[in-house]
Design goal:
Layout (H helix, E strand, L loop, with lengths): L19 H10 L11 H4 L20 E14 L1 H6 L14 E13 L16 E6 H27 L3 H12 L5 H17 L5 H5 L20 E6 L5 E10 L6 E6 L14 H5 L17 E2 L10 H4 L8 H9 L1 E3 L9
Antiparallel strand pairs: 1-2, 1-7, 2-3, 3-8, 4-5, 5-6
Amino acid sequence: MSRLAVATAASFIAAANADPALTAALMKKAQLVPGSKTIPDFMMERKLDGYAEEEQQWSFDPTNYSLKYARCQMVEQYSDEVAEDAGQENQNGYVMTTVVKKQRFAVFRLCPSSFCSSKSQFGCDSGYGEYMVDLGEYLQTMMQYNENKKENYCKFCEDCAAGNGDNRMKRRKLEGQEGEGEDEAEDEAEEEVNYCNVSACNNYQDTCEEQENYGDDEPIEYDRYFECQQVQGADSYGNELNLYVGPHCTNNAYSIKLDLFYDEFCTNYAGNKYKLNSFTGLNFESSGLSEYYDGSCVSCKESADPYANVDEDNEDGDDIAEVCEELYMQAAKCEEGISTSSS
């Protein structure tokens, strides 16, 4: 049986490419890296045959859970693409000396919402499912989540300011809580209206109004570098060369940052010789990606978000937050500890 390679002795979750179309091929070509630990049996028992399906059935009610980023994981895996370039010199004179590709993954948990803790790195220590997804896919999904969250918040506050908050919020709650009784829903809607009037929009100006005071620097579009991206720069002697920028896991196995690499796969680290900002001439912040792993517990219940618009967000007919659906569908899964429904 083919086995994926785990780069660190601490690894306890299998590596699986987050692109469903490639999963089957990668599993066939995966090789064990000498000196690394084998994949734990409980992860090898995943239903890999169903992993590449476009739609995956939940075996539990995700609306009772919250998403919690746990850590960043690097995995080494044999790659035909890298092997083809091995021993060859690229345009910068760099010679690829390996046949393995370093892949980065985000590990997250679905913790019971009733006791998911934002103060804990892992969020919970029982009753959870653990998941691994391609780091670039994770960052892209969380960026979209943050953008939607901001858009909903700003629209919510604009409605409040225009005096439309009462009707909009009442409609949200009533449509998001079908079957719970008219009196209870009306009471909850009234509570939200009061919330709107009192404190919900204190951060509107900082959050929603465009900030144009960037000085001499244009804001960096960090999402351009969620996947390995070629950049041009110069060495200390002024010689032009091409390197690559991509996200990687820092030494604490939690933080995610952008840095430089010699190759198009962002496998061979160049950050020891070249500094990202000096080489690119851009002012990358070391915490530029931190908003995508801020440690908060994100409820998978769509209607739990007081700013979400049920009219627009519930078009899929369920109350599952889109961010949870997207990441769950892309991820390798370990759900031994989660309470599942009977099949």
